[in-house]
Amino acid sequence: DAGYSMQAAINNNWPNWTFGLTGDQSNSIAYARVDPKNISLSITYDFAPDQPINLRSNPLPRFGNTWSCASGGWLGRSDGSAITLDADVHTKAPGMNLQGHFWLSDMTSGSAVLNGAASAWVGGSGTVQVSTAPNTLVDGHQYNWQVTDTDGTMTGPASPVCQFTTDFDAPDSV
Question: For 4-13, which contacts have Cβ atoms below 8 Å and span 24 or more sequence positions?
Fold first, then answer.
């Protein structure tokens, strides 16, 4: 069984590896049973997609003039009550398509807004995105979101968690 050695080559990122067939050297006809014109070896492999990067949203939550995924920001009244979540995805496996799965949680109510919502498929690297329905976000609530990517067989590591808070009420008059 060559599976263990092949898995070790993948796990350790070996740049080259060789697979060989050997027979019983003491038997002079051991290779006579193999027809070299009809023998084949098929190897199917896959690499887990990379962790999604460059997480962003539209509208982009603000904290002053800056925004950071981990420290979050605010969505205000002019931003509306829906959001589109984006991330960049990539895989090392040639010819594979990727799909993003998004989780958006309302941390104030404890409910799931998006629970593994699937994006459209993209080529081996690209941007995946999903949008919430209008009037989904609730005033004064804190939200956390993250994304994973999959090639349909393997799933990559989850992204860092992003957060934002909504404030749709106009400020009180002074």
Answer: 6/43, 6/45, 10/45, 10/47
| Residue 23 Cα to chain centre, angstroms | 44
CA–CA separation, 72 and 144 (whole Å): 9
For the stretch 29-85, pLDDT in tens is 665 566 677 777 676 677 899 999 999 999 988 877 667 787 788 888 878 889 999
Report the amino acid identity of residue 18: T
State whether residue 79 is helix, strand or coil.
helix
Instruction: State the amino acid at position 47 in one-letter form.
Output: F
- Number of helices and strands (H, E) in the chain? 1, 8
pLDDT exceeds cutoff 60 at 91 = yes
Strand order in the sheet with 125-131: 53-58, 84-90, 125-131
Helices (H), 12-156: none
CB 121 within 8 A of CB 105: no
